Queue: 2 jobs
Job 1
Amino acid sequence: MNIIDHNIEKLARQIHEDYLTKIRAAGDSNHPSVVEWEKLSDEFKESNRAQARSIGDKLRAVNMAFDAGESAFQTVTEFDEETTHFLAKNEHIRWMQEKIANGWVYAPIRDNEKKHHPCLVPYEQLPLAEQQKDINTVNNIIPLLKSIGLRVYTQC
């Protein structure tokens, strides 16, 4: 078991806390996932865990990896704009696959009971505010890993 797998719950909670901070700052607190972790539905908790589990795949997609600092490769302290947008698009695809697997479908108006969601569209069709959520997810990768003693590095 690698260190991320061992820390999935901690990372998932931190992902959710970061989400809460950003959503509340934007004044968008009228959503069933804008609650403390203990009150969060199992579906939303698992969504945060899935996001945490996907970090290694995201990094591999851009020829990066993580470790505790033992390799000689150059540390990445932030992603450049091109990498950020590539990873944000991939995060949106991952999120859509997760939603669809859980029975969600596209609809112009969100309805949690019917599992209808207006963001089940290609990344390029998302409103900028929704794209920003995926960008925030990507920008949180390096600090999240750092919080458990890991760093991101380039593999070349």
Job 2
Amino acid sequence: MFSSFSKNITYLYFNRALIQFAFGMLSGFSVLFFYQKFGESISKVLLLFIILYSIHAVVNHFTAKLIKRFGMKKLMIFSVLSLSLMFLSRMLWDYSMYISLVMYALFFTLYRAFYWIPYHIEFASFTEKKSRGKQTATLYNAGDLLAAILPFIAGILLSNYGFNILFIISFIFAILSIGPLFKVEEVVEEYTWTFKKLIKEFFAKENRSMVVSIFGNGMQNIIAAIIWPLFVFITIENDYVAFGLILTVVSVSLIILRSFVGKYIDILGRHKVLRFGNFLYFTGWILKMFVAGSTSIFVVDVYHRFGFVINKTSFDVSTYDQAADSGHFIDEYTVLREFCILMGSVFMGLILIPIIILFGLKVAFLFGAFSTLLMVSINKQTIKNH
């Protein structure tokens, strides 16, 4: 499977796959943990992640400044160590909710701020433009194939032993993921923007189409990652095993469908495939407003997430193309991209709290559909070469 990939991409994705396993043991269960600990308050869960994403958006700029001094590899290793501690931090909840939350917020921020910018920069550097779609889809599938069954196993373990067993297993996977990073070559880059420059570029007219599209991606991300898992869990009457089984069956179905996506991205072009994915993803959000039982959850989620597979793969390939084409400013673009995604999630989270209180969970899916429409504008924007 990996014979056509460079050594750097292979090791980089072995790291990513092991991290996927770590998250696969928790998957949607992580959101359920906070939902239950907060007395089944969706508003409190959203508020927590609004705070986390806001901190992350600001910290990203300052951690990017450390790339030149320490190198991307060291930052990624430090980030994964933080990730492993993030998993363990929730085991302290029964001892002290506040200590657990503070530690979770700290390690969540350190992981995301030190990991994603170097990862995106290295991925864009190590892949080839002519086959980037196929490579991206193949690598996504490699991790998902091995992690697909984990939610079902996690549901069984959770029903019998509680959340702590999941946190321990995720911790082990995170520690193991550090090994491949030592084999990845260093990519030399320097982040030169000031925070004032970052904000200026965020509001710049010439970047507006790109910013709006990635902002829209962040808006729908928070609905997909938080609201949908909670909706499914509530609909199936708080059954952990059924919840895990649904996630596993949907994941396996998507692996089969995704195998066709990467090839056609390279053949038909990113933008055509992205528009088709946007249509599926948009209509999928609308269909979710009419879901009423476990069978319809499965059917609609497969349909919707197939649109997500096309959408995310072609969207990521397009942004990697733009980043690679921008030459030396690849890291500046990546920081701006992450800032846009996070601000989109914060913006949507603030909207959802009063909307859900007044109208219920399903209305959030209508906002998800609107967010998907915003992502179409990436087709019209190529990052400005500064």
